[in-house]
Structures are given as C-alpha cells and as structure tokens.
Amino acid sequence: MDATSGLYGVLPTEQADAVVLHYRLSMTLTEAADLMGIDPSVLASHLLMAERCIPRRLSGILHPPGAGGAPGGCKD
Question: Cα dihedral angle (3, 8, 14, 15), rounded to 10 degrees?
C-alpha cells in the first residue's frame, strides 16, 4: 500500500484530503481550502491534526523527498 492510500485508513477523510492536496499536490492552503469548500484556517487545522496523529510509517508524506526527519505520530 502506498503512503497516500494508507492515509485514508488512519486519518479522517478531511484530514487525509488536506494532506494529499497540500503536501502531495503542492497546493497552497488557500487553493486546497477553496477546492474543499472550507476556510483556509479550517484546512490548516486539518493539517495540524494530521501532522500530530499520522503514524510514523506514513509521516514521510509530510516532507518533500530528501527533506529528512519525520514527526512522531499518534496511535489509534
């Protein structure tokens, strides 16, 4: 299973969508929020919650390749 698919198994859909749009598709907060039909501050909240709770095995999606380092994660 690739990291993007794995996100939807461990995060609420809104958080996974926010991560994919912002980190994988390189959309700005405003662009991603507009696409999702939410306020940019809500999108930022989704990203923050995802960053705090994403399992370590999937945390590489939060960083561009070669950026190194990965945040810790929450366990359900």
Answer: -40
